[in-house]
């Protein structure tokens, strides 16, 4: 679970960096395409159409950031609650070793034993 949290955190950092680079590259690409349309004497996109495309792409980036922040919050809450649950269960119940597949000394797991 901790590995998942670490991977999600690094994924969010990469997404934030890559989305910032992506938006800059997209803006430069759109401006270059607009200049190419002028060179080819093709009528460029009308301003309302360009604004519509740009606002939709910004909306998609905003949704991506909202989902990313929600996942980050869920992962941090899960990480802290999982640690508390594990600490309480070990402190209250204790642990005992249980052999798996009948091989004593091999493939042992820890299992909580109820305290009566």
Task: Tell me what you see in this structure.
This protein is mostly helical and 116 residues long. The protein has one domain (2-112). Helices cover 73% and strands 9% of the residues. The chain is built from 2 helices and 2 strands, in the order ααββ. A two-stranded antiparallel sheet has the order 1-2. Helix 1 packs antiparallel against helix 2.
Keywords:
116 residues; two-stranded antiparallel ribbon; 2 strands
Return residue spans where pLDDT drops below 50 for at least 5 consecutive residues: 105-112
Largest beta sheet: strand ordering: 1-2
Number of strands: 2
In what range is the share of β-strand residues? 5-15%
Q: Summarize the main sheet.
A: 2 strands, antiparallel
Report how far apart the termini are. Answer: 30 Å
Radius of gyration: 27 Å
Number of domains: 1
**How does the overall form come out from the CA principal axes?**
rod-shaped
Q: Tell me the number of helical segments per DSSP (H or I, 4 or more residues long).
A: 2
Share in helix: over 70%
Name the helix and strand elements from N-terminus to C-terminus, one letter apiece: HHEE
> Averaged pLDDT, please?
63
- The helix/strand class is mainly alpha
Keywords: Membrane, Transmembrane, Transmembrane helix
